[in-house]
């Protein structure tokens, strides 16, 4: 499964980078394949692994912010591994032909 999620602290002002870094640090320490871009962090693993990381990332932000917004999207597909890379490679192949 691939989970794309965004954790945003509310009530802390406009500059939220240090709070988001707390969440991304949890993802990086998880050992799961992941990618972070300007809007979302994606990670790949089984349901329990992914949801545990999301829960911990939210808790890290929640520990410092009075309110937290979570946006989550999941691609649940049994038997697929390395989807983070394979999906992008497929699009790139189509773009180059």
From TrEMBL:
Family matches, as InterPro entries: MTH1187/YkoF-like, Thiamine_BP, UPF0045_domain
Residues that span the membrane, as ranges: none
GO CC, any one term: cytosol
Domain Thiamine-binding protein residues, every copy: 3-92
Alphabetical list of SUPFAM superfamilies matching this protein: MTH1187/YkoF-like
Pfam family for this entry, one: Thiamine_BP
Family: Belongs to the UPF0045 family.
Name of the protein: Thiamine-binding protein domain-containing protein
Organism: Streptomyces nanshensis
